[in-house]
Structure formats: C-alpha cells, structure tokens
C-alpha cells in the first residue's frame, strides 16, 4: 500500500532532534523541532543526511563541501537513500520544509514525493549525481546542473532533472533567460498571493507541480528558457496577473533606492568583507594602525544588496527583488528589503507600517538584531521627547521627567518592534500600536523617513571610521565666509547616523566637510558593486552640502562624484565634502588637511577679491575723481595700498592655479569651475587694471597741475619783467630826450615840447610793443615783493619826468 503524504512547516533555522517513533497523524502536542522516523525535511534543518547526520534532512544552506546547488538537486542526489527508507513505509509520510517556502523548498518536496512513489525514480547515480555532494566542477562523471546535458539520460527522468536544474539556477542566483513574468517561480508566487491553499497540510503545491510536470513531459520544453505554463487554463489568472505585475515592478525599480548594505553576521564568515584585526595588524605594522581602524573589524559584516521603497505597486516586489540578478550590484538579487506602507497605522503618530527583511533562505547567520536594537533605542527617545513635551505643556514641572522616562521604556518593552529579538532575526516589523518615531517620510526612496534613516545608517555606516563605537561616525563641517558680509564659522561635528540633523551651509559661506573611511572599504572596485558603493557614499556626502534636499541627488550626480584610490568626494556650488581613507602613517584628520587648507585659501581669495571690487565701486568715476581729489594732498598714495593688495591677490591666484594643476585636486578643480574661478580671476585682473588706471590718471592729473602751476608762475614772472622793461625804456627815453634837449641848439618851445610829449610817447610806444597786461591774463597774481617794486618804479619815472620839465623852464 503506497504511503499517504502530509506537509508541515517549521521556522527557518530550526535545529531538529531525532525520534525513532512515528509522528502522530493529528500532530497533538509534539514539538515542531522533533523529526520522527516517518519525516523527511527539505530546505530546512541546517544539515544534510549522510554519514555524519542520521536524520532525514536535506538542506543545502549549511557550509560544507561538496555542497548541493539546491534542495531539489539534493533530493535527486539522495534519491536512492530516500527510496530505501520511505518507499516501503506504510501509512503516513510527513514532508517538512520551512514556513517561508520559496520555489526550491516546495519543488524539493514534490520531487521527494515522486521519488518515494514512483519505482522509475531510480538510477540517478548513473547520471553523475553523487549522493555525497556536488563539486560544481562538472566533468564526465558529474552532472552539470547549470547546463544539463540530457542526451544519454532516459526520457522519464528529463522533467525532474530540468525542474531541479531550474531550481538550482534560482538558488544560485544565476541569470535565467525566460522572462520574469513567465518563470515558474513567479507563477507559483502569484498563485500563493492569489490565495491558493498550497501551504496546507494536504497540499504542498502539488497541484502546481503536477501541471508543470505534465507540460514538461508532453511538450519537451525547458523551464530555463520557455514559459512552461503558457496557455494553461488552470493558471490563466496568474499569468494575466503577472502581465500586470511586470510593468508595476519596472516602475517600482525606478522609484526605489538601490544600495549596498553591511549585514551583521552571528558567526565570522570566511572570507569576510572587512579584514579581521589579526590579519590587519601584523607585528611590523602595529604601531602604524589606529585603534579606530580596528574597532569595527571585530563585528563581522557581510556586503550585500539592499533596496528601499515606499508603497510598492507590484504585489510580488519582494519575491522578484530577491531574485533580481540583473539590477542588483552583486548580481545575486536584493537580499535586504526595506518597505514602508503609508497610512497603515492611522492612530499612531507615524502612520506608516515598516517591514525590514533579510532573505531567510540566504541569511546563513546574518541578522537584523542591531537594526531592531537601534529602532528600539529611537523609539524610547521619541517616547521620552513626546511625553516630556506633553508634561511640560501641562504642568511645567520637571520632576515628572523620570516618571515619563520609566513609562516610555515600559511602553516599548510591552510592545516592541517585532521580529528582531527572535532567534534568526531576519525580519523587523512595526509594533501593532505603530511607532512614535515621527513623522513618516514622503519620498519613494525613503531617504526622508526618520525610521528608515535609522535603519539605513545602521547598515550603511560601517564603511566610515569611528573614534569610538559609542560616538559612531562623525563628519566635521567647516563653513568658510566667501563675502565680507559673512563670517567663518567654528568647525562643527555631526553624527552621520543622524544625517537629518545636519544644517545647511551658512549664508554667504562655502562648506568643506570631511569624514574618515575605513581603510578596507573597496571604493575603487570595478563593476556595478564598486560604482554603487561609490555613489552610495557620495550621496551621503551630498546630503551634507544639501541637507534641505532630504537626501535627493541631482540627475547628473555622477558628474559631481569624484572617486580616487584613497577617497570619495562630491562638489557643488556650495562646497566640497570628502571621505578619506585613514592613512596607516597619519591620524585621520591629517588625511584631508592639505585639501582643506587649499579650499580655505581659495575661499579667502574669493572673499578678498569681492571686498576689493566693492572698494573699487566706491571710487568716483575718473573725471569726477579728478575734481573730488583735486584739493587733497598725496592723492596717488590713497590708491597705492589697494593696488598693492590687488598685486598680492594676483600672486595668490597664480599659486592656486598652480595647485589646481596638481594631481588629486579634481574636487577643487570642479568646485572652481562651478563657482567660476576663472571669471573671478578675470575680475581681479579687471580690478587691478582699473586701480592702475585710476592711479595713472591721478598721477597724470597731479603732474599736469604741477606743470600748470609752474607755467603760471613763469608767466607771472615774465609779466613783471615786461613791466620792468617798460620802465627801463621809459627811463632811457627820459635820459635820451634830456640829452638832446640840453646839447642841441633848439628853441625853448621845441625843447619843452620834446620833453613834454616825447617821454610819454616813448613810454606809450614801449607799452604798445611789450603789452605786459596781456601776458597770462587771469593767472595767479605775482608775489608781494614784485608788486611793491613796480609801483615805486612808476613813481620814480613820474618824478624824473616832472623834474626834467622843471629844469627846462
């Protein structure tokens, strides 16, 4: 009489203990972790049936070599052992798997049932299926599960080998050419989503696999390439559903944030992502390493893909994301998923419901206990703040703060976040009452959500170096004034695990910020993983420049990202943020000191050029400047300090331009481009030229004034000399006419007329010839000495003329 089959499901991570009795058909109070003689466990249990494991357990997740590629493959490898134990068993046979079964788990149960029932399910050892394991190096004596060759294998075994091969490809996260919406696993998940009772005690998804087997046998198709259930009337609704879900999933991928996360592992993986301190701290290098570089090396973290999304539109988003080898950076699917469903807790301060998952089939010791602890800490802090504010508002009494704190802790302990405190700790979900960590975010990628930010920083912050585990990674921020209206701010430090608390740069300032990277972070790895990690770190740094964007990055973000062997940096019109790997021979602050000094020198130059240009604008235009400065002494000296300052700034600008030409100054070069440094230098040259022109014009004006003054004085002297010449001519005329009158025999009337008329006539002719009154008319007056000499000379001439007239009479 053939056996009857029943199915049961146990927690992932269950460790079975054996019992030689038969399991009661009604279950009773028998322990789920007890594996009876009539039970076969597949894809659960953490061990494999063999020489060192007498229990009937077929699990491929444990670390062993050689290993099976899937539980389905393990069933066929162990088919002889399974038939030997269970095929002749009368009564009830229980098939056991985990309570979150994937395709491979249910497929392995179906294949095990076939092996037990069908006498033709024998001879697999002859096909190269070694019952001791699969090496992954197929040859003539080993079956290739990734590229199965069925030419020499009986036709009645083809469907089982193809089905197990497909399950192995799924488990090993290999690319499957058949479209996502037509793969067998997708149709199975759609059937489960639609409510088919495949996880009951009597089902085990047998209906689904019966249909699959029939199609594989009748049509001779391959599930890795073909849509096995295409046209199936039994699953027409699931196929129609998947057609709709395909587009929804593509939309979800566009909206989601894809990242690399570092999941803690309960036991040290081999090899681990971060080097163990015993490997890092060799005796010769011990004194070169800082304690901060070793603090996180003790907590083993595994690099894997994660994805964050608000309100997925695709019903199969999590299932498809876990197997999405095309879009995940490491090519193994998104092992960690963070999903928020908005407006699911309307009575709570935060109305969203959160689900954080690790793929339980791949966890292998990885857990979310640290995430759970972080959320519980945030919950206590939020409750204390909420109740403290309420107490202060009602009574204003500080004495009730301790009572509120006690009540807060009690509330959290009474109803904590679920899942994180469990043994496997692969899921963390919102408490039933909701969460007080408010408010919920609005962005699709959840970068503005405080709950998800706590989780994100917990899983992504291990790339940064820390001075202590209690403080966590710190980013140092410098705001340098770029104009005279602003002032340099004192350096400040902020927690990277609380990025929403970082303020925007001060008005009129450029920001330089720095944080240390652990020396073993692979920031220059090639491929999608290296690019995604570099972008992920860069997006965190970008938030320090643009905290008002709440984690949003520009569409051309790659243009703002600079990755070098020892650092990652971002730049924008607001400044520069850089993450340096800590050097083995220097303290972390020294790693970016030179770059910070160069940045400060650049900003200082910009500020002083701005000041100098403002000072130049206060000067009057050149024609007005002449008039404004005409009455001042040392006019050129007023502009010489400005010109000297401009020359000094020009020298500093040349030094900065030289610095920009050096290697590893790409960040500074990009920043200079975005702020228009060349235009600023051109402005400086313009200011310098304008100052030089002002100074040259002022010097020319002063020289012209000196020449004009000299010419005026010369003209005045010449005018006085002409007056003297005129009086000299007058005296000579007096003397000549007197001699003529005395020595020549002229009539008295003629002599008198000669003296009376001749002397004024001679003086008039001299005045007509010299014209002293026309020399530099309107010029400055002569000196007092010359003025007093001219007047007596005139009086003397008049006296001499009158005396001469009197002598003649």
Q: What is the topological layout?
A:
Blueprint: E1 4-10, E2 17-19, E3 34-36, E4 39-42, E5 48-50, E6 53-58, H1 71-77, H2 79-86, E7 92-98, H3 103-117, H4 158-171, H5 184-193, H6 206-219, H7 236-255, E8 257-264, H8 277-280, E9 301-310, H9 317-322, E10 336-341, E11 353-358, H10 369-394, H11 401-414, E12 427-429, H12 450-460, E13 474-481, E14 492-495, E15 509-517, H13 527-545, E16 561-564, E17 567-572, E18 575-581, H14 588-591, H15 593-618, H16 622-629, H17 640-660, H18 666-675, H19 677-743, H20 748-770, H21 784-808
Parallel strand pairs: 1-7, 2-3, 4-6, 4-7, 9-10, 15-18
Antiparallel strand pairs: 5-6, 8-9, 10-11, 11-12, 13-14, 13-15, 16-17, 17-18
Helix pairs in contact: 1-3, 1-4, 2-3, 3-4, 5-7, 10-11, 10-12, 15-17, 15-19, 17-19, 19-20, 19-21, 20-21
